[in-house]
Amino acid sequence: MTRSRTVLVAGLLAVTLLAAGPASLARASTYRDRMFKMINRVRVRHGLRELRLNFDLSRYAHKHSRKMAEEDRLFHTRNLRRKLRSYRWTVAGENLGAAGSLKRIRKLWMKSADHRANLLLPDYRRVGVGVVRYKGWFWVTAIFYG
Predict the structure, then answer these.
(1) What is the pLDDT of residues 85-125, one digit of tens each?
(2) Contact 60, 79 (CB under 8 A)
(3) Which residues 6+ apart lie within 8 Å of 57 measured at CB?
(4) Which residue of 1, 22, 79, 103 is most buried, as measured by CB atoms within 10 A?
(5) Tens-digit pLDDT profile for residues 16-54
(6) CA gap 123, 145 in Å, rounded
């Protein structure tokens, strides 16, 4: 390949990556916002206060969701206490899910005693939410603390 053709291919690749990047991030934040709203709707329906979104923790949750999607398996944060060390908290929990829709994940969480308890714990005040859509599936990480 000649130098000019190499530069052209590299330039097209860079343009393609830049064009896909912001759109992917925009979709991820839209999915995150939808899941966050679903979590709060569940809490309000059960007489609980809404949670506030922690954007820094949401970035970590997004990375965690992406890693689960890439590995095609669910797994919890290895050391949640260490992950939360920079936040003021006394209680924390994590919900994970993978399904064809965000609504399905919420339904599955409500049918599981442990996941439901995390959603409805009155002591929680904040949550980090990360959502990735990968090969037609939504992968979700929600980290709660209060």
Answers:
(1) 999 999 999 999 999 999 999 999 999 999 999 999 999 99
(2) no
(3) 83, 84, 87, 126, 127, 128, 143
(4) 103
(5) 233 334 445 557 689 999 999 999 999 999 999 999 999
(6) 8
Q: How far is CA 112 from the centre of its chain?
A: 19
Quote the CA–CA distance of 15 and 4 in Å, as a whole number: 16
Could you give the C-alpha distances from 87 to 6, 104, 137, 144, in angstroms and in order?
48, 30, 31, 11
Q: Which amino acid is at 104?
A: R
Amino acid at 114: D
59 and 32 Cβ atoms separated by less than 8 Å: no
> What's the pTM?
0.81
